[in-house]
Amino acid sequence: MAETAEPVVLPAEDQQEKTALKDARDPGYLVICWNDPVNFMDYVSHVFQVVFGWTEAKARRHMLQVHEQGKSLLTRETFEKAEHYVHQLQSYRLHATMEQDK
Amino acid sequence: MKFVRVNKSAQGDGTFTFLLSKRDRNFLLSILKLFPMTETKSLRVSQTSAKALDASQDLLVEAMAEQQRQHAKKIERLLKRPSRFFHETEGVIQLVLNGEQMEWMLQALNDIRVGSWTRLGCPEMEAARKAVRTEESAAHYTAMELSGYFEAALLEGFRHT
After folding, report:
1. Which 8-state DSSP code applies to residue B10?
2. Which residue is closest to B36 within chain A, CA to CA?
3. With contacts defined as CB-CB under 8 Å, which chain B residues touch A30?
4. B82 preceded by cis ω (within 30°)?
5. CB atoms within 10 A of CB A31
6. d(CA B138, nearest CA chain A) in Å
7. Which residues contact B32 (CB under 8 A, 6 or more apart)?
8. In terms of pLDDT, which residue wins out, B114 or B126?
9. Is some CB atom of chain B closer than 8 A to the CB atom of A56?
């Protein structure tokens, strides 16, 4: 008969070390929207409001950043969340990508 | 196409009403027939080519293709029975859409706009007209402009919510 293993509780220090290691491996992903000449400014603002639930003012600020500076960093997220947002933005055909935060 | 009003229901959702000429309605139906125009394989999840993003890239292409299939079904239903959306009384045509219909129509129109622009060679807007050299590019230019015209009307509706 196989022995029943005792549950092992890691000391708090080990837990912290584990979390730090995980953070080092997964530093987060940046969701960036890039400028293009085809999408209307009002359209881009509308999409930001729908996808992120932002106020009109915040959405407009980011839209203007895209327009004037060529891109806007929209959010920093975990891999899964960043992927979700990129899908949402691209479903509206905005030029949005996720980039690893180094 | 001109935005007329939004009717809010007690539940918080509502319908958007637009006024159209016969020509507007025919153009809108014709332009929606062009859907989809964007090549989903050309969409990129990231600007870098990290190995970790390979699966994500495949997932994006798959998700966008599925979205196009869903929108295509909705457009097909609209084209089959336009009377569900367009109400004509004494020569006045109204288009009535709920919030969900507004969103998918906006996405579909922008797919056509972006796809047409891509086929024109992704020109700057000021140079887009100069990119028209053939009958085919003229069709893409017209589709890009017309879808933009209808998008602007839908966005005007959203501004009143």
Report:
1. T
2. A93
3. none
4. no
5. 24
6. 17
7. B75, B78, B79, B105, B108, B109, B112
8. B114
9. no
pTM for the full predicted model? 0.87
Alpha carbon of A28: minimum distance to chain B alpha carbons (Å)? 13
Quote the CA–CA distance of A83 and A97 in Å, as a whole number. Answer: 9
Residue given tokens 């599925």 in the structure block: B66
Task: Please tell me if residue A96 touches chain B, with a CB cutoff of 8 Å.
Answer: no
Q: Give the per-residue pLDDT at A53.
A: 98
| Candidates B44, B50, B107; nearest CB to A92 | B107
3-class SS of residue A100 = strand
Nearest to B111 among A37, A87, A93 (CB): A93
Whole-number Å distance between alpha carbons of B155 and B35: 19
Instruction: Work out the end-to-end distance of chain A between its first and last CA atoms, rounded to an integer number of angstroms.
Output: 50
Question: What six digits make up the tokens of B120?
Answer: 């024109």
Select from A4, A15, A94, A31 the least CA-distant residue to B113. Answer: A94
The pLDDT assigned to B7 comes to: 86
pLDDT at A67: 97
Task: Identify the CA nearest to B33 among candidates B83, B71, B86.
Answer: B71
Where do we find the tokens 């009958």? B135
pLDDT for residue B108 is more than 90: yes
